[in-house]
Structure formats: structure tokens, C-alpha cells
Sequence to fold (924 residues):
Amino acid sequence: MRFGPAYGRVKVPLLAFLLMAVASFAGCNSGSDTTVDALVLESLEDPTGTLRPEQVHLKEGGVQRLESARPNLGSTAAAYWVRVSGWQGAPRNARVVLDNPTLDSIDVFVLNGARVLGSVRSGAAYGKAEDLIPSFALPLNEAHELWFRVRSTKPLLLPFSLTQVDRVETTRRRRDLAVALYSGMVLAILIYNTFLAFSTGQRAYFSYLFVVLTVGLVQWGFNGYDRLLWGHSPWMAVNGLTVMGASSGLAALVFARHFLEVRRYTPKWNRLIQLLLVVYAAALGSAIIGMPSLAYNLVNLGALSAPAMLVLSIVSWRKGNPSAPWYFVAWSIFLVAVTMQALRDFGVLASTPMAAALLPLGTVLEMLLLSFALGNRINVLKRSSDEANAKALAASLENERIVKEQNAELEARVRERTDALATANNGLSGALQELQGAQDQLIQTEKLASLGQMTAGIAHELNNPINYVQSNATSLRRDLEELIEVIEAHVRALTALSKSDPDAMLMVTKAQELARSLDLGFLIEESRQLIQGILDGADRTAHIVGGLRVFGRMDGDSLVAASLGELLEASITVLGDRARSKAELNVQLEDGLPPLWCQSGKLSQVFMNIIVNAVQATESRWDEVEARKVQVGLSGVKDGAGRFESLKVLIRDNGTGMDEVTRQRIFDPFYTTKDVGKGTGLGLSIVKGILDDHGAEVAVKSAVGEGTEFQLTFALDAKNGGENKAENEAA
Amino acid sequence: MAEEIIRVLYLDDEEANLFSFKAAFRREFEVHTCIEPHQAVRLLDEHDFHVVLSDQRMPRISGVEFFELIMPDHPDVSRVLVTGYADTDAVVDAINKGQVYRFVSKPWNEEELRNVIQSGYDLNQSRVQNAEQGSEVLAMLEKFAGRVQEFEQALEEGSSASVSRVQQDLRNLRLEVLEERQRYAQWMDRTAK
Fold:
């Protein structure tokens, strides 16, 4: 068993205190039963408790001799009549003492046959404060019988003795002193541990305080001193000891549970403790509902917990509970003390003053040892808590170190990631630039595509007239040579005729022959037509080139005043057979409209794009060219004052049409419904950009299977109109 | 063969081109011109043309489409596509579908075009001869098949007279086949040249 350092310090004064206590108990109790003679005791059982004193002499047959001077009739509901004799001849100041203050009721009768000569009532339920040692005067007539009627819920332990009056008083005082001493010790323990309980906050301490209090009260109760607390309450007289015993049992069990940490070390025992707690609680309950005997017996049953706790402490000890040995020793002392008391009560041991002091001493020792054990436990807890704190500190230091390391690592990684992000960002900027480059390229490609489209149209348009100009020139030269040949033949013939050459007629015939063979008339007609073809071709070439002029530069940003009608016509011309041979073009252009300040080349790109789309839409829907219809219209919108405020271009087809989703997306860049590689998806996007630059409103109506209509409205705004006006005036 | 005059048909949607063409080639070839495709089809049915030329870009129908149209009825005629602008689409289309013999761009080179027409005529001639040869061989084979049937009938009769007659016929047939093979070999030689 280990004593904590705190107990090393208090060990010596404590031992001294204990020795003193034992000595004083012994001293206080010495000479308390200096009986003169042995009394003779006879008992009569009154099972129902209804026997009246007048009837006692009729029951002489039931009277039995009691062998012991300290008979123990056990715990019974019956009343007992005890005839005390042997006092005859004793001095007048002698008293019969029944030294058991716990008996509920003691009635003393002086009987002479059926006559009751005197009676005194005493006992816990009736006794007076000074009757802590019930003592009774002797009958005056030695022939009379002295009868004691005792009844109690507690065991009928009847230590009769014959003592002198002053001896009774002395015994009383000594006992008072002993109880006061005991109470003082219990109080000291109580107060000391109350402080500890509140300063440590340990549950075990509080249950321990309860144990000390209840055990102390039980000891008071054994000596009848409890009535000092609550007077002569009959209920308390009957039930006080039971209630205090049950409370003490409850406290002991709760304390054991806390102190031995039953749940941790011996969880199986918890069930038994609960069962015993129920027994004690039932005892309390029985006492409250008015069944004192049952309550008393339940408390006795609960006493089984004493050995049970001893065994439990051993088991707990084996399981490694460091507090268990303390408990074992303390509890053993208590058990020994209780056992000794029981042996004394049953007359096995002599009722010496030392024996009487054993129980209170045992309880005090138990209390002290448990208090030490609690202290030790606190120390153990503190040590383990210190160790835990040290460990926690070390752990937290370690954690701090790890966190620092991790922080450093994290910072490094953050730097790394930042660098990576910066690199990625650079890469992204590069990619963005590339993308923008690609987009520019695509836009350029689209421009080139429309340029190519234009070029193809222009080439075809130009190549046709050039073809027949060139071919006609060749043919004309040949015709001319033949004509010259004919002319020369005629000239020669005429010359010969004029010179009256004899071959003249032959030459005329030859010339005529030549003219016939070469079909002179046809040659002349053909030559005329060839020349006309050359003229037509040249004219047509000039017209096409003239149409091109209105386009201006394709990339030109400069604004020119251009007639939208001319632009539309030029666009259709340039598209040439691309449009005209594939669909029926119905062109209606209003005359006399003011010119529009615009980027003419870009606008013609817009018109060509929309017209080509319209033609393609009809191509997808109709097989016959006659059914494909594209309408191109231009009209002016006038305001209230009759001036033109805007120009409206309408391009409508009866092609496949679009659904709503497609219609909403047609101006999105890269959106195309054409096959991969057929369109860049930029055409209409660029168109929209150009129209936005011109501040033109675009309305697109379309329905699947009906066709599409583009309506472009170009506002002739103040500046535009004004300049137009100025232009017109200047013109 | 050069003795035969070459018949040429030119289809274009522009009158001026037609006139130029006729003026350029009327001296060498029998030139027919036509502005409407359906008229051209009728002319093809009426005359036995050697070479057909067509403009690619025309309203309602392209040159390639026109050639496709006349292919089934006039497989032997040589087809020449003439176009003002050499767009690849038209060329690819022409080669894949139109069975176009040659491709000539405007403005044309007269000499080149003349050669194209001449070689087109040659191709037409060999095609026609091929066809003739083929039909001759076919007629021969049919004739042989008829003879073989006759032999079978004779053999069924089984008389000695008929057997000797069949033997005689077989000898004649062998001679005919040999003669035919010789003719075919000669034709092959000529074609190879």
C-alpha cells in the first residue's frame, strides 16, 4: 500500500490522535456496568401485543427463564414481558438499568397479581431526553413483581443491570463525552473533507461526505443521541435507525461505485451495486409508507453489501485499481468492528468497555482511511494529469514544430503554384493571342472568301465578253483577209478592163468566181456582226468594271455617298450567274432615293452575303430553278414632312427557312449550319458587325418551310441627311 | 476518215459567243450552235454529232448537268466543257459525273480549241468503230450459236448422212471462225496504231 506524500506529513499526529481516541473511549465506558448482583430474568411472549398488565399473572405458564443477563430476543413484532427479579435486597438508591436506548417502547410495571401498583413509560418513542440510559427505581415492596414490557422494530437486545443511581449518572456523562468526542472526530473529518470535496470537485468526495454523515448518525442512533436532533418523534423513534442505516448503505454503495471506479475496472459488479441500491431504496420506501419491520429487514438484507464490497475491492485490486487496497483495508476494519459489535450483541463476546468502543472506533478509522485513500487518489489523478499535461505540452510543441514545418512547406508550395499559375497565365495569354490571331485570320479568310466569290463572278462576267472580243477579232482578221483578197481580185480585173487587157474578162470572171466561192455577202455580214460583237464586248466589259467601281476598296473605312440601288445592282452583277442562274431574282429598286453615307465596299459585301445565302436556301429546298424565288427590294421611308428618314433593303427567299433557335444564333461567330469546311460561320457575324457600324437595324423573320426575310433599315440621320442634302445641293 | 466532215454542236447562253464560235470554225467544221439546252437535245437526236461543246455556267442548267442528261442516249459523242472561270467545283464535278472529255477555259485559244475538237472527233470515231466491231462480234457469236443448235438437232436424228453433213458443216464453221479471228486481229492492230 502506498501512502502519498501528503499523508507522510500527517501520519504521526494522526496516530497520536487515534491512540488518544481509543483511550478516551475506553475510559469513558469503563465501570458503566458495575452490577452488584446478577439479575434473574424471565420472559413472557405476547405475540399480538395486546396483553394488559392485569392479565400478566394469568400467563404464568408461558413465562420462560432467560439465561443471559444480556438476552437478545431478536427482531420481532411481538411484545415481550420480562420479569426482573434478584434485585431484592439491593440498596434503595439502586436502579434497574436497561441500557438500550434504541428500544421503541419500554413500559415498567410493578404488579401484585392482577393489581398494577405503578407504571413508568420510557423508550425511544416516549423517553425523555435524559433517558438516554433508561433506568428504573426498585419497587418499595420486595414482594411485588417488577415487569418490563418491551416492544421494538429493532432487535430486542435487553442488557439489564442493577446499578447505583450515581453510577448511572456517571456512565451517562462518560457516554456523553465519548459521543461528543466521536462526533467531534466525525465533524472534523466532515469539515476537512467538505473543503476537499469542493476544492477538488470529485464526485467520490461528495459521496464520501454522505457516508461520513450517515455513519456518524447511525452511531448516534445506536446510543440514542439522534433524538437530540429531532426530539421524541415517534416515527423517528421507530424508523430513525432504519432510515439512517439505509441512507448509510446507499451512501456506502454510491461511494464504492465512485471510489472504486466500478464502471471502469469491474463493470459487471455495477449490476450488483444497482440491485443493492434498489434494496436500500426499497427500505427507505417501506419506512416512509409505514412498514418499519420490512424496512428494518431490508436494511439487514442490504447488509450483504458489506462483504460484497470487500470482495469487490479485492477484485478491483486485482484489476489494477490503485485505490482498491485502501478501500479494502478501510472496509475490512469497518467489517471487523461491525462483526465484533454483532458478536457482543449476541453475547459471544464479553460486553467490555473496549468492545463497546470498537464499533465507533472502527467507523472512525474507516472514515480516516477512506479520506486518506481519497487524497491518495487525488494525488494519483494529479500525477497522471501532470503526466498527461506534460505529454499534451510535448505533443503541442511537436504539433507546433510540425505546423511550422508544414507552413514552410506550404509557403514553398504556394510559391511553386504561384509560379506555375503565372506560367499558365502567360501560356493562356499566348493562347489568347493565338486565338485572336486565328480569329483575325478567319475573318480575313472570310473576307478573302467573299473576295474570291466576287473574283469568280467578275472573272466569269469579264471572260465572256473578252472571249468573244478576242475570238471575233481573230475571225474578223480572217474575214478581212478574204475580203481584201476579193477586193484585190476585183481591183486587178478593173485595172485590166481600163487598160483593155485581153485577159480582162477572164480576170473579171475569176474575181466574180472568188467572191462567190468566199460568199462575199456572208463575209460582209459576218464582219459587221463580228465588229458589233467586239463593240458589245468592250461595252459590256466597261459596264462591269464600272459596276466594280462603286464597291470602292473592300477594306476601305472611308465613308462615301453611295446609292444603295447601284450597290445592290452591282452586287447582283458581280454575283452574276452565281445568283441569277440558280434562282429567279426579282429585283425592285425604287428610284430617286437619296444616297447614303457608307462604306460602300463593305455594304456590297453585306448584300452579296445575304443574297448568296438566300439563293442557297432556295437551292436546298427546290429542285426546279423556276420554283426558287429571291426577292431583292429597296424603298425609302418618309417622315411627316415628306423627307426621307430611312432606307429599307428587303431580301426575301422562299427557301428552307430556319427554326427559332437557329434564327437567334445566325449572327453568332462560328455558328454555321453548313457542312464542315463549307462555311466559316463568320459570314453573317461580319455582316452584323458591318451593319452595326452603319447603325442599321436588322430584322430577321423566318419559318421552316416558308423562307427567310432580311429587312435592313438604314437611318438617314441628321448628319447623314444633312450631308446628303449638302451633297444634293452641291450636285 | 478525214474525208468525213466533223459535225460540232456548241451550246452557250450568250448569243455573242455562239456567233464568235461559228465565225471561227465554220470553215473547217460543220458548226451548229444553240442557246437553249432542250433545243440542243433535239439537235443531237436529229444529227449525228461527233463533238459537243457546252458552256458551264448557264441559267437553269450547268454544262456538266447537260452532259449527264445526254449521256444515256449519246454515249459516243465527245463532250467538251467550256467555262469562263475555272472553278474547281465544276472541274471535279465534270470529271466525276459528266464524263467530260476535255476542259477549255474562256477566252479560248482558237488553235487549241481546234485541236481539241479534232481529237474529240478521233475519240468519237474509235468509239463508234468499237461499237460496230462489238456488234459484229455479237452477230457472229449469235450465228455460231444458231449453227451449234442445228448440229445438236442433226445429231439427234443420228443417221449417217446427217453425221457426214455435220462434219462438213463443222469444217466450214472452223474456217469461218479462223477468218473472223484474223479480221479481229487486224482490227486490233489498227486500233493499237
